[in-house]
Specification:
alpha/beta, Rossmann fold, 6-stranded mixed sheet, 12 helices
Length: 323
Amino acid sequence: MLKQFKYDGSQPVELDKLPTGAKDYKKQKEQLIAKTASNQFQIQQLQDKLYADGKEGLIILIQARDAAGKDGTIKHVMSGVNPRGVDVYSFKSPTHEELAHDFLWRFNKALPIRGKIAIFNRSYYEDVLIVKVRELWKNYQLPKRLLKPEIIDNRYEQIRQFEEYLYQNGYRVVKIYLNVSAKKQKERFLERIDTPEKNWKFSEADIAERGLWNEYTKAYEAAINATSTKHAPWYVIPADQKWFARYLVSEAILKALTQIDPKYPQLSKEQIDRLSIYKAALENEKEASDSLDAFTASQAEVTVADKQIVKDPQDLTPADPHH
């Protein structure tokens, strides 16, 4: 099922022709909700291995129009994963300092170490979306030779190169576009206005951006077509039904982790043999009740342990890639 929503540059994207709802898959709602839960469990297991392995990193980019369900999708699909192995960034309008650097600078700073997952709630694609639609580039402090409409096409190329660079340095990039319809966005905006607990989610800027619906459709379509590659494909996910969007996103993330195929580090035979010695020492500890030295080893046990300690602590256990 996921394959039909994947774009790797082999075919063009026409957003107006793509579904925003579950359509015939509504009949499978209960099964797909159950499959989402199964996917979450598998993601948790693979994320634990990814963190322990420390050889590859995963970057998940989520782009969408307002009220498409980005926050809820992230919260639901990634629930249960070890927070120590996941970084989440919600990128807002760039600061003065960030604008004084190249447009990828702030995202480079947020890249995870290998072994971790980074989730970008909005990303450097904003620099070819709102920057294009609103022509914000015209006010950038850049040389005049760069302040031309071609700045967007140049950024497409820079993004492609950046994502290939990441792949060649041990990072997978999963790019999600939550494709919500204008009708569903309107419903969710009205719900935010009518529900006091959701008033805080509504912004006047959302209405202004909605007025540029067609312009954003063209911008998203151009960006997806220009940056869909084999190593960094886009997934255009129907987002009108949250349960369906969450299922497909969980499938995309699970697929990436499965392709990485992380493994727990393996100890050498000598290391495994030494573990049995320390296990025996722990099991034979003498308990001292109500004492600060609750557990004490005999002198003989200490002597045995001392003989087994290697000069280089790295020889005892696999290095923790995160320290």
